[in-house]
Amino acid sequence: MLMFSKWAKTRREWVVGNRRRLAVVRVTYVSLVCVLLAASVFAFLPRIQAHSDKSETQQTIADEAAVRKEYADKVSKTYNFAFGKGNISTPGNAAVQGDTFLEPDAFPTADYCGHCHKEAYHQWRQSLHSNSFRTPFYRTSVNILIRTKGIEFSRHCDSCHNPIAVLGGGLTQSSIVDRKFDQDGLTCTTCHSVQKLQSTLGNGGYVMGVPAVLVDENGTRIPGLVPDSEILAHLDRHSKAVMQTFYRTPEFCSACHKANLPNPLNDYKFIRAFTAYDEWQNSKFSQRNPLTFYQADFTSCQGCHMKRASNALPEPGAKNGTFASHRWAAGNTAVPFYYGFDEQLEKTVEFLKTGNYLNVDLFGIRKSNDDKLIAPLGSTAFTLAPGEVVQAMAVIQNKNIGHSLIPEVRDLYEAWVEFVVTDSNGKEIYHSGFIKPDGKLDERAHSFTNRPVNTDGVFVDNHKVWTIHSVAYDNSIQAGRSTLIRYEFRVPSDAKGTLTMTAKVNYRHLRQSYLNNVFGEDHVAYPIVELASRSRTLNLGENPVSAPDPKDNADWMRWNNLGISYLDQLQYSDAIQAFSQVVKLRPDYADGYTNIGLTNIEWEKYASARGGLEKALELNPNNARALYYLALVERRAGNSDAEVEDLKKVLAQYPQSRDARRELGISYYQQRKPQEAMEQFEALQAIDPDDLAAHYNLALLYRRAGMKEKAKEQSAKFVTKKIDPGAPTYSLDFLRKHPEISIESSPWHVHRDAPHAEAVVAGGEH
């Protein structure tokens, strides 16, 4: 009893002034406790309980609050409140309970947690979260921001990359904060101290609590460090302190895996940066969007990036012999390559090469002297002769990624199609998407990237995001969609035997020019990973029908993906022809008819759309996707009540459908039902706080209802978030200066580059 009375007395001292000494004290202390517990564990349990009483907890909280106030007062005296008094994280959105600074020493170190959670610590140490702040790739960009605009602007980035620095008040001129925590980036207790989420705004949309690793018997969080013995004696209370139900939701990830560039950062206006969360929410994996082309079981962000596996090291957090991965395997090969984290690099490459994320289909060919589409290849007989000019059609399907290819900072990553044609001797006839001798990607390659530009019509290099005013083009493939890429080459007049076409999707993190900016041009080559590929052999002469490859989609799906590609490239007639092939092969497939209806709607042939949609509903009367599009047809036909009923049926099945909420709000607005319209637009904002239609319509509705302040707020948000009508001129200026890639801004284009004559480095894994 004497030992635990002593601990109760000194715990407040640890909280107030001796946190740093715990690591030294713990080894001797825990050894002694373990001996005593082994001798008489049951005798001590009630005594342990006695020292977690309410008065003790209240005193600890009071002591913690006093320390925090003293620290906050000290920091506030010299802190640059550039964006308003009390705004400690702007231009980021990070918040903290109590709305004031939180001393960095309040966060237990990762080493402290790793004392017991060995597997979690081992995985975390090599992860991107652990290295979120210190890498030269991140530092290069953020240091330019600091030198250009000031350290206070880096709060925008570090609200996610280094929350302790932001909430500790370290990002100010002449900071008094000891930045020793920089090496740990996102530690265990940054994520596990988040107590609440803001709406899915991103840019650090969380509310941080004072870190705690234990709660008392009433569930009250106890700030500060505690001995391991206390945690081991109260594992349930430890779990309540460090876990929240929402940690397992995609909304938790949205706090940082969604970003925008706000006016305080760029002195311009709101610009969307990346929206991985929104892309997931609109994908088939969320089961929140009725308009996806395909369906799948629910899968969260954690379901892909935190897959459970057997733990090799002791891990109290494991369940039934498996542990949720804390290495968050995704697409970043650069960081583990740079630090020599071989295990993390191996796991990342393994993740990327799973083989089920993308589908590459060499779908068909056209001859220059014949408009006939020869497709699908393998299922259609044809002839090919020397000297003919051939247009090959490669369809890339984003099959099982819950977000776009590429997500997030597309201007830094490289994913592209490498297309090669060789003769029977292996001689190269055509090559697009090669790596040049200087390590840079062929400029004319079809890459899944974007090109942000500034007011001078110049590509925004080095990730200077505060200078972005427009995006010249964005060739990413959204989740569940496909893109068609056309390559044109001439069959040599002396060719004999066969030709082999190969299309690969390659990936590199990061692009070579950015690596050059970080390290200079003389640096080791960074890994290139092949994500997916497909080859087809063409005979010079007769090409009979062949057996399908097991890796290929069924022919009806191949046509469907082609139709999706045509639709996104605004080739409506071709899209309808492709979808017509789908229903010919699969007359029972309701979505095939819906796709025909959708194409007619986008083509503004509303009357023609009705037949396909009604056929889809004949096959599946509750098909929410067909009901949604039929509602749009009913609106054009003036059938307002039918329009509303269809949308209500959609929302009954998909209450978080952004599109259905938006359209039903418009329907009620047109019916002069302001209250009902207001409810729909408010519900839409709860799903997507950045929806322009919601801002615009709520500004009108609030004003008419006499809610002037709310109307003013919504109007201001609409003004800053709407597209600047002058911004496209910057894109046009950029495209004029770069004719070699200007065709990438056109939805429909053909790669007709002459065969590459220089020695090249073949794509694939390096």
Automatic annotation (TrEMBL):
Sequence ranges of the TPR repeats: 556-589, 590-623, 658-691
Keyword Membrane (UniProt): yes
The keyword Magnesium is annotated on this UniProt entry: no
Matching PROSITE patterns: TPR (PS50005)
UniProtKB keywords: Membrane, Repeat, TPR repeat, Transmembrane, Transmembrane helix
SMART domains: TPR (SM00028)
Annotated Cytochrome c-552/4 domain residues: 113-193
Domain of life assignment: Bacteria
GO BP annotations listed: receptor-mediated virion attachment to host cell
TM annotation in the entry: 21-45
GO CC aspect terms: cell outer membrane
Record-linked PANTHER family: TETRATRICOPEPTIDE REPEAT PROTEIN 6, UDP-N-ACETYLGLUCOSAMINE--PEPTIDE N-ACETYLGLUCOSAMINYLTRANSFERASE SPINDLY-RELATED
Protein name: Tetratricopeptide (TPR) repeat protein
Organism whose genome encodes this protein: Tunturiibacter gelidiferens
Top-level taxonomy: Bacteria, Pseudomonadati, Acidobacteriota, Terriglobia, Terriglobales
